[in-house]
Amino acid sequence: MAKMLEFRQLSKKYPGTVSPAVDNFNLDVEQGELIVLIGPSGCGKTTTLRMINRLIEPSSGTLIVEGRDYRTYNAVDLRRRLGYVIQRIGLLPHLTIAENITFVLKLSGVDRTSRQKRAIELLEMVGLEPAEYLDRYPKELSGGQQQRIGVLRALAHDPDIILMDEPFGALDPLMREQLQEEFKRLQQNVAKTIIFVTHDMDEALSMADRIVLMRDGGIVQVAEPEEILRHPADEFVASFIGRFRVLRQASEVSVGEVMLTGPVTIGAHQGLAQAMELMRRRRVNTLLVRDTTKTFIGMVSQASVRHHFEAGETFKVSMIAEMPQKTLKPDDTALTAMHQMLEGNDLELIPVLNDDGKLMGLITRGSLVGLLGDALRVAAEVDPSSRSSEGAS
Amino acid sequence: MTLLSHTWQFFMAHPSQVWRATVQQLYLVAIPMALAIVLAIPLTILSTRIRWLYGPVIGFANGLQTIPSLALLALMIAIGMGIGTFPAIVALLLYALMPIIRNTYVGIMGVDDGVKDAARGMGVTTWQMLWIVELPLALRVIIAGIRSALVTTIGFATLAALIGAGGLGQLIMEGMGMASNSIVLAGTIPAIILAFLGDAIMGKLENVLTPRGLKG
């Protein structure tokens, strides 16, 4: 397969800084590959991306774009050959959706009729009704829809290479997942070469053909997702993929690592109707009650709230909040959590509190089962005896 | 009421005098405004590109605004420009600069960085960035600046009569000289109407020129 991008000792050092932002970056990208650049903030992933379309000029080294040194392209022409999607979306607010989608075509002087046709084609490709969207303006769309248009805009001129800088980073988790799925489907059809920057390991693992893990401007590991999970190059990589450390025993994993953060909580001063509404909206049957300093006060069940509400009580939820028999601390082990869960018969969840009694997160049966499931799967893969028993069954 | 009817009589008796003063007034507004726009907007755009320019530019315009308008007119004579229409136009022009410069700068600098980054990444040239991204998005703010400059200028223009530039201020001064309130009003009323008209037209223009995607 043809090489679309070849990074050769590409480096960027900003004047007045001691260490380079990107240091000696080497990578060959094949046609149709989706490469994810990932790493902690400041690792140089965005700088690397922005050097591809010359929004940042490299200090040394070179980059070969579709067989030609980047310097042989005029920067503006080069950018019009590439697709570009950013976290801040950046649709032009004064242009319609149709005009936004075909913006690059307009810059390249494509006539209006062809542009309109292309916009319709693209909207249909992602299942958006053209008649409904073509003439609307960006601000009339939700963030998720805006970024859908942002992605279409990068496809409109049919570039071979698309650069995506945390494209789904600003969306809420549900919308993010939806757009990731959509984009994967889209990519199966269009098979573009994509450089994708993210700091979200889940996203990297689900999207990437190859992951490039960066730190301090350099590459730490380049590998396929499966490979990076199985054989992280070093401790840094291992800790970066953090919650996927499935090979460790439950006794080694802390509650803090596996707990769900951001549980559905309610302020102690809220009323019963508010509690009912919150449970309905977030589809949970237990609420964690906290005061204004986030100190955990207790839990309320749906049954209890409903009972008191229907009895016509008007007091606050704190009145019926019950302290659970069991709570956990973030540095308890997952094993402790499992024991606790098994001891309490009907226990569906255990709040995780820090030493000050503040609510840090939540352990559910689900979060532990996930851990167990991963551990068992890995055990099956590494233990030949369990594999043979599988074959016998 | 008698004052108003006297004023009306004056209008009826001297229509050409009032008309001439009004037309002069219009020139005293239109010419400095046009010059201020032509001068201020490019200069400000330049200082959004060469940042250190903005300090001196807005400083100069602000400084001019701190001079009382009357003193600025007197200053025109003092620096040897003499009296008449020309020094008045210069003074009015200088006075109109500040709101235009300020709003142009704020408007252009206020364009969302995400929009600019996306546009640059898609390959707009420097000129295209200005013409199809920054100016359309800043236009509403720029027009608002011109609007406030216009209203000030219409008011200030009546003072231009003090250095012999004519206009409606001339009528007002004559009225004061003759202790005739009706003549003073004959100059004042058209001036007020002009100010309202100017403001309304600019408001309309602001609305018309605001792209649909930015409204509401």
| CATH fold node name of the largest domain in chain A | Rossmann fold
- Characterize the largest beta sheet of chain A: strand count, sense, and whether it forms a barrel: 6 strands, mixed
Binned, the helix content of chain A reads: 25-40%
Shape of chain B: elongated
Could you say how many structural domains of chain A there are in total? 2
Which chain pair has the greatest contact? A-B, 28 and 22 residues
Strand content of chain A: 15-25%
Name the CATH class of chain B: Mainly Alpha
User: Mean pLDDT across all residues of chain B, rounded?
Assistant: 93
Structural class of chain B, please?
mainly alpha
What's the average pLDDT of chain A? Answer: 87
Number of strands of chain B: 0
The CA-CA distance between the termini of chain A, in Å, is: 42 Å
Oligomer: heterodimer
Annotation field: number of helices of chain B: 9
Q: Would you identify the CATH architecture of the largest domain in chain A?
A: 3-Layer(aba) Sandwich
Gross morphology of chain A is globular
Computed structural class of chain A: alpha/beta
CATH level-two architecture of chain B: Orthogonal Bundle
pLDDT below 50 for ≥5 consecutive residues: which ranges of chain B? none
CATH class (first level) name of the largest domain in chain A:
Alpha Beta
Describe the structure.
The complex is a heterodimer of chains A (393) and B (216). By secondary structure, chain A is an alpha/beta fold. Chain A folds into 2 domains: 3-244, Rossmann fold, CATH 3.40.50.300; 255-370, Roll (CBS-domain). Chain A has 17 helices and 15 strands. Chain A has helices at 45-52, 75-81, 97-101, 103-107, 112-125, 130-133, 143-155, 173-190, 201-207, 225-230, 235-240, 255-258, 272-282, 302-310, 334-343, 365-382, 384-392, and strands at 3-12, 22-30, 34-38, 60-65, 68-69, 82-86, 161-165, 193-198, 210-215, 218-223, 265-267, 286-290, 296-301, 349-353, 359-364. In chain A, the strands form 4 sheets. A 6-stranded mixed β-sheet of chain A has the order 6-7-8-3-9-10, with helices on both faces. Chain A has a 4-stranded antiparallel β-sheet with strand order 2-1-4-5, with helices on one face. In chain A, helix 13 packs across helix 14 and helix 16 (365-382) packs across helix 17. Chain A is globular and about 75 Å long. The model of chain A is unreliable at 243-247 and 378-393 (pLDDT under 50). Chain B is mainly alpha-helical and 216 residues long. Chain B has a single domain (17-211), classed as MetI-like fold (Orthogonal Bundle). Chain B has 9 helices and no strands. Chain B has helices at residues 2-13, 15-49, 54-66, 69-81, 85-109, 113-121, 126-157, 168-177, 181-209. The mean pLDDT of chain B is 93. Chains A and B meet through helix 2 and helix 4 of A and helix 6 and helix 7 of B.
